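Researcher: Here's my situation. A collaborator sent me these components and asked whether they could plausibly form a single complex. I don't have experimental data yet, so a predicted model of the whole assembly would be a useful starting point for our discussion.
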Amino acid sequence: MGRKLRWNQSTLLFGGTALWGLVLVGCVMVERTVVAPPMVAGSTYVGSKKCAECHEDKTGHFAGSSHARLAIKDPKAGDISCEACHGAGSIHVKTGGAKGTIVNPGKSPEACFQCHLDKRAQFSLPSAHQVLNGKMSCADCHEVHSGNAIKGTGADLEAQNETCFKCHTEQKGPFVFEHGAMREGCTACHNPHGSVNQKMLLARDANLCLRCHLEASDPGSSGQINANAIHHVAENHNTRLMQGACWSAGCHEAPHGSNANFHFRY
Ligand code: HEC
Ligand code: HEC
Ligand code: HEC
Ligand code: HEC
Ligand code: HEC
Ligand code: HEC
Ligand code: HEC
């Protein structure tokens, strides 16, 4: 998914320029899809150096950011990396920052979808954060002006969880009985962009848990999921799994951790 290039009117307007040629190359190399640049009617590109005159706080650390690696260039304006997300800035600069003269992707994710079109589809799934209706922004979880766009990357995954704890304090604990899975990050079980399963879960049933808790099947076996083989457990889980998922069958209803029971019950 996501390798096909989409063309519409605004892309065609720019299609012949070296600029979008470069963006396309950049995006194709990392298998992203380009739709259209964000547009500010009547504006032309001025280059990132111009932005620095008034927005030092944003340009100061930009060189080390994920998107600086793209180094998007325009034949006239040179480096226009800022404008790749914010749209052409000439009118904004001329008016000294008047309202409505520049795109703010914090208010709408459309600017991001130009290159990350697959994310629009993910956020349209039945269980997803409310980004498409503007109640939340990509920037609630992503860093766009400095460092890695995925917060906490490179450091331990618990740091990545901090992004989620800003809003989801209940899952933070501390718990008397902590679930080792939390050290792998929330994304071990959830897709924060959206899922067909409720609560943005990666799987709707026991498979969610069996990815980590199944013992390797014997060499030569069929490799089928066998609930008898749940890690460390002597008891046969097959009958329990008929009652529901591991967390809904009344057995491990506190999958994030528990203060009551080491089997993660309330
Ligand atoms: C001459 C000074 C000046 C220059 C140059 C300038 N800006 Fe601004 N910009 C402003 C002012 C003033 C504001 C309004 C600030 C406020 O409301 O706090 C602003 C606001 C913004 C906003 C927020 C708009 C909103 O609706 O929330 C963005 C995004 C922005 N600028 C991006 C840029 C980019 C990208 C460039 C380079 C193409 C740039 N600016 C160049 C002065 C400038
Ligand atoms: C990957 C896309 C992206 C790039 C590249 C980018 N920005 Fe932004 N910018 C955003 C998003 C998203 C927001 C809104 C969230 C926020 O404030 O962090 C934003 C907000 C802003 C604001 C308004 C901040 C405020 O406090 O209201 C300014 C000013 C700005 N950017 C300037 C720049 C400048 C200058 C550059 C180039 C060095 C740049 N941006 C590069 C995505 C981007
Ligand atoms: C002009 C195209 C373009 C736009 C616009 C754009 N991105 Fe990206 N983005 C990319 C490319 C290409 C990469 C891969 C960069 C790399 O791997 O070095 C990327 C990477 C990312 C990553 C992953 C970083 C990582 O370490 O793997 C995130 C998160 C991201 N972008 C979020 C956003 C958000 C949020 C916006 C809108 C505010 C946005 N992008 C706008 C092209 C774009
Ligand atoms: C609720 C938090 C959250 C929101 C909102 C969010 N992301 Fe992400 N995103 C993440 C996390 C966490 C990861 C790292 C996923 C991983 O490590 O498996 C990620 C990874 C990414 C990546 C790189 C890996 C991939 O899936 O391609 C891109 C690109 C990206 N996000 C773009 C976006 C865009 C664009 C938006 C807004 C339309 C957005 N994200 C909104 C949390 C979020
Ligand atoms: C800016 C605040 C914010 C951040 C940051 C945030 N969330 Fe959420 N999250 C929400 C809100 C609000 C809802 C409720 C959404 C709704 O009602 O549709 C929610 C709902 C959820 C749900 C449950 C959905 C349901 O159906 O009950 C999960 C799971 C979730 N978020 C995971 C995450 C993960 C994982 C992260 C970090 C990668 C994260 N969230 C970051 C605000 C946030
Ligand atoms: C071991 C897998 C797993 C991990 C890791 C995990 N979750 Fe969950 N999460 C679940 C399951 C299963 C549910 C559904 C519980 C239910 O429906 O009763 C859930 C539900 C949720 C909900 C909805 C409210 C609720 O409790 O039902 C939120 C919000 C949430 N998780 C956030 C997070 C955050 C934030 C992280 C990372 C700090 C995280 N989860 C890590 C498995 C996990
Ligand atoms: C990302 C991997 C991962 C996932 C997914 C995962 N777990 Fe775990 N789980 C662990 C780790 C690691 C431990 C700690 C194991 C240890 O200490 O030996 C653990 C421990 C447990 C324990 C305690 C077992 C004991 O004997 O102490 C239970 C119960 C448990 N998990 C249930 C679940 C359930 C239910 C799910 C699905 C909602 C799940 N796990 C998903 C990694 C995972």
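Model: Some features of this prediction you could bring to your collaborator: Residues 161, 164, 168, 171, 179, 181-182, 186, 188-190, 199, 201, 247, 253, 255-256 surround heme C (ligand 6) (CB under 6 Å). The CA atoms of residues 233 and 243 lie 18 Å apart.
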